[in-house]
Amino acid sequence: MVTALDADWAVRWVRCAAADVRTHRDELTELDRLIGDGDHGVNLDRGFTAVVARLDGPDGTRLATVGQVLQLVATTLMSTVGGAAGPLYGTAFLHASRVTDRPVLDAAGVLALVEAAGEGIASRGHAVPGNKTMVDAWHAAVEAAGPVVTAGDALAVLRAAADGAAAGALATIPMTATKGRASYLGERSAGTQDPGACSTALVLAAAVEAAQAADAS
Amino acid sequence: MVTALDADWAVRWVRCAAADVRTHRDELTELDRLIGDGDHGVNLDRGFTAVVARLDGPDGTRLATVGQVLQLVATTLMSTVGGAAGPLYGTAFLHASRVTDRPVLDAAGVLALVEAAGEGIASRGHAVPGNKTMVDAWHAAVEAAGPVVTAGDALAVLRAAADGAAAGALATIPMTATKGRASYLGERSAGTQDPGACSTALVLAAAVEAAQAADAS
Amino acid sequence: MKKLLDDPAEAVTDALQGLAAAHPDLLTVHHEPTYVQRAGGTPPGHVGVVSGGGSGHEPLHTGFVGSGMLDAAVPGAVFTSPTADQVAAALKAADGGAGVLAIVKNYTGDVLNFETAVELAQLDGVEVASVLVNDDVAVEDSMYTAGRRGVAGTLFVEKVAGAAAARGDSLEAVAGLARRAVGRVRTMGVALSACTVPHVGRPSFDLPDDEVEIGIGIHGEPGRHRIPAGGARDIATRLVDAVLDDLAPAGGEQVLLFVNGMGGTPLSELYGTYARAREVVEARGVRVVRSLVGSYVTSLEMQGASVTVAVLDDELTALWDAPVRTPALTW
Amino acid sequence: MKKLLDDPAEAVTDALQGLAAAHPDLLTVHHEPTYVQRAGGTPPGHVGVVSGGGSGHEPLHTGFVGSGMLDAAVPGAVFTSPTADQVAAALKAADGGAGVLAIVKNYTGDVLNFETAVELAQLDGVEVASVLVNDDVAVEDSMYTAGRRGVAGTLFVEKVAGAAAARGDSLEAVAGLARRAVGRVRTMGVALSACTVPHVGRPSFDLPDDEVEIGIGIHGEPGRHRIPAGGARDIATRLVDAVLDDLAPAGGEQVLLFVNGMGGTPLSELYGTYARAREVVEARGVRVVRSLVGSYVTSLEMQGASVTVAVLDDELTALWDAPVRTPALTW
Ligand SMILES: Nc1ncnc2c1ncn2[C@@H]1O[C@H](COP(=O)(O)OP(=O)(O)O)[C@@H](O)[C@H]1O
Ligand SMILES: Nc1ncnc2c1ncn2[C@@H]1O[C@H](COP(=O)(O)OP(=O)(O)O)[C@@H](O)[C@H]1O
Ligand SMILES: [Mg+2]
Ligand SMILES: [Mg+2]
Ligand SMILES: [Mg+2]
Ligand SMILES: [Mg+2]
Fold first, then answer.
1. Model-level pTM?
2. What value does the CA radius of gyration of chain D take, rounded to a whole number of Å?
3. Percentage of chain B surpassing pLDDT 90?
4. Could you give the percent of chain C with pLDDT greater than 90?
5. First-to-last C-alpha distance (Å) of chain A
6. What's residue D224's pLDDT?
7. Which domains does chain C have, with CATH numbers?
8. Domains (range + CATH), chain A
9. CA-CA distance, A73 to A55, in Å (whole number)?
10. How far off is chain A from C112, nearest CA to CA, in Å?
11. Torsion sign, CA atoms C294, C296, C301, C305
């Protein structure tokens, strides 16, 4: 049982996420090629590569709180990703950083992080669940994580969020998109997973990976 | 034995040539695609189609001499074919018309026709045998027809010219072009028959066809 | 995929280097963040006109920087909206003291990044107005879509706004004219082949040899539906009909007819399509008084075209005719 | 093959109809025989400047008809020289009383048809001078070839001659300047893909996915040799080196650098290639003082580019800078 996650975890999370985005870059891009404009994987890879470069530089040494790590992620994604995903992920991490500005997160803090991120995206993109966007994954993450928080295991909350996001991403497959580029395709958008929902599931799975590394150590 | 060929023969020749060019249009174009710019068959087809249209119109009714037929062919090709082949074939028929301005051609007259046509092309294009052009076919036609003329059979002269042209066209295959577009390819032009030499063989074979029709009738 | 490129990740930067070197009299390129600015900057007291968006649509927008059109343009990665800090830097640079008009094509990414950029520039005291271009009639503007896209009609809006700024109009007036232009311009496009984004390396969609995509955007995204490949007359009729059905002219209007190539279409085909499109427009009682034919709002090397109709009035016609000097549009 | 065309046999006529309808202020199109003439004709007392050749290279030549460049242009079928009577009609129409300069690209077909046309026009009392453009360094000018082809450098010759005629130079002077331009301009091209002639319906040559053709002409003919597909830097270096080795500049020369697209190449790639080419030119001690980047002398939808260098002097620079107003080139 992991009761608390600290700034080191957040740094590991971001590094894991960057590695996973790199590994799955072409899959994400292919999903976006099918129902968007074929750049989602490349956009995120460019952004997370820049985040890792900043973590490796002088900015990376002074990060005492989870919130500070997430704020660095937010500003870097906002100035390097572009497209729809840049401001959306940027806002998610920015809002998440505002509720996590302390050295250690407990189970409730993890839930607050995920909730703030999801709300940030929904408010920025004016999307609701069912529009076939990353909101579907974030929303499912929050729904799944909420009931687990009372047990007090931060890792379990994170795991529930990640599992929820994965299920939410899969659930976008049959949907017809009504937000973002995929909406231009109308019914032809059904049958393909939303790339942003897919990357959301990846990013939250990376958070679990990073927490498990802490658990083992 | 056909001792004489008249204006009707010339008209039949031109119609046969037009039909054969149409039939072999894509082959000629394909040869030109390989070592030129892929338009030879289309160019000649456009020209001979216009010639037949003029033969079918009011101009076609007043043709008393072989020369008059050939002059109509010459001017029509010159104003409809374009490219290199237009002026070359145009000049060939124009020069041939000048030595055939009488109702009937004997064996010597047929040879004179082929010689004048070949000389017209060579002087217009400044090409000599071995340059891998239609000159190779015309030259071979004249060489083959010359010895046959003493026998006095106009059809035999024509047949020798056509066979010579066919052999001359085949002989262009291994040549490296030094005139016309194919010369830009340098040694890569070797291995393909020259399209203009090939069309020359077609046109002279049509003359034989037309004369045989007279023979049979 | 074969392209005249070196590192795909550097392709946008390499092209900007060439643009700057070829047109030092017209524009300069700034780096970190990247934007293109008119040589000498916005004339003091004039409204700055700024646009931007993903790269891959050249000459839009960078090729329209100069006098009489854009004061700055912000190129993102290929088909990817520029970031908010790029846009904010361009907005600030283009302020000549009379405020800045931001011309935004209606895509989620562009809208989100420009929104943030406008806030950032306003924090720095720059007065900014925005206009959203959404001329693509292929997309239904309903609650089931992100709204109509901005496509080739953007050129018309940029020309009108740039000319209004050049004659000294206020920010309010320039923005008003740009909005009037948006309200009167409509576009519909067709793709004969897809394009290949350099870092993706394969075509953006798969299209059988005997079909065309009707209602494409300019990002290599598939269109609304596929139809058997017809001739220029068939396609021009479909595009013009869609555009005019939407514009619903009463008849007798004077219009600009703009046939735009998607990047890989020969100019001769665009002129042939223009001839067909013009016949259809005039058969509906509309008079073509201005024309533009060429590849101005492209999707890399995509083969295809779009037809844009803009309903003119005396003022819009005068602004269209006003002098312009940019790399891609000069008169 | 998918193209925005109706009947391939009418494609040239259809495009001319569009050209005429889009640019009534600049040009008119004559039929039977077909040629394009500057609106209002050659100004009386000025030398007429005429060019022509096969279609498929648009905007060359018809897009350069207007003021300050061509007084008439004669389009043949696609990649097929126009006929002598077409050319003769254009020569006669372009005579403003001071004679006509015929600018002929060096191809057997063009040379033969223009030769005949010049004789026909002279019979009708028109004074005609001819200049042969042969800027393509890919072809060795030897007894083993038809001589160097005229390719993108033709644009430079037409601009210089048109400007000289516009300022009132005599036929002898215009012809002399055109010949000076020919002597100082060289070009080399590359193809990444072949083009498809409409009535042929299949690509003009077959090129594997990992190779490019170096030393292509503008008629879809294959080049001199194939090399593995390198990047823009590699290709630009090869093209510039070939051009400069032939021009053999002593160093310190001022030049026009013209990167031309073959029809299907995105503008961004042309600017990127221009950036690379300029580096190579300048590394050889030559100064680029004028630039042109765009698809001006094309091969239908071929992907590829050519690099042209023209060595300027004060007079050629002034003639290049002189005003021009045509559908495709305006400043
Ligand atoms: N309005 C929106 N709200 C939330 N998410 C959105 C919205 N529009 C798009 N997205 C998400 O963004 C993803 C696409 O991101 P990306 O491809 O990087 O940007 P772009 O669409 O600009 O190319 C979509 O898969 C979707 O999940
Ligand atoms: N200088 C020349 N002399 C004689 N024949 C020539 C010459 N140049 C080209 N040809 C002939 O013309 C043929 C090509 O004709 P065509 O394809 O119609 O014209 P173009 O080469 O202008 O496209 C060649 O195959 C060759 O036989
Ligand atoms: Mg995308
Ligand atoms: Mg040919
Ligand atoms: Mg994008
Ligand atoms: Mg030809």
1. 0.93
2. 19
3. 90
4. 87
5. 12
6. 75
7. 12-183 (3.40.50.10440), 185-321 (3.30.1180.20)
8. 5-209 (1.25.40.340)
9. 9
10. 6
11. negative
